[in-house]
Specification:
Number of helices: 3
Oligomer: single chain
Number of strands: 11
Radius of gyration: 18 Å
Helix content: 10-25%
Structural class: alpha+beta
Order of helices and strands: HEEEHEEEEEEHEE
Strand content: 25-35%
Shape: globular
Mean pLDDT: 92
Length: 200
Amino acid sequence: TGLLSLSGKNPQNLDSVHHRLVQLFPGCTLVHRLDFGTSGLMVIARNKAVNAALCQQFSQRAVTKRYSALLCGHLEDNEGVIEAAIAKDPALFPLMSICAINGKPARSCYRVIERFYKELEDGTLLPLTRVQLTPETGRTHQLRIHCQLLDHPILGCDLYGGLLLPGTAQTPRLMLHASELDFVHPVSGEQINGRSVSPF
């Protein structure tokens, strides 16, 4: 969390996952990205041939990604599917928007792991839901905007309404973590099941 996947054009945004890795592995390329606030697993290609093979798996939706998240409030249903097309809107940048006409199809599944209360500094009890999120498509901000659509935004999400209540200490980060990444190794054909325990 707090590290760009790819360096930005502004010199202040030079530090990134790609910038650090290319020092060790010249020629490496990003196959996919994580939002600036999201932590967790990424797969990086060491060369162009591997990149092409991995990109094909992503485009054919042969890669399974699962995320751990904390949502504001208590979700009523234990599991469900969110289908809502997502569009870029220059007027709202950097926000994305739900748009059935101009948006690209987007589908996410969720499963509740636990519902609990977090006690804030003033003694207030904040209801939270720990969920496992599985995006079946890979649109920008997909999980964040889909959770907002459920009226249960991701805790710590400054773009889609998941900050703590006014007057309380804000959460230090976006509570979204890429915890599982399953794909086929493009050279050996071995099934790779990446796992990273959520830090929250």
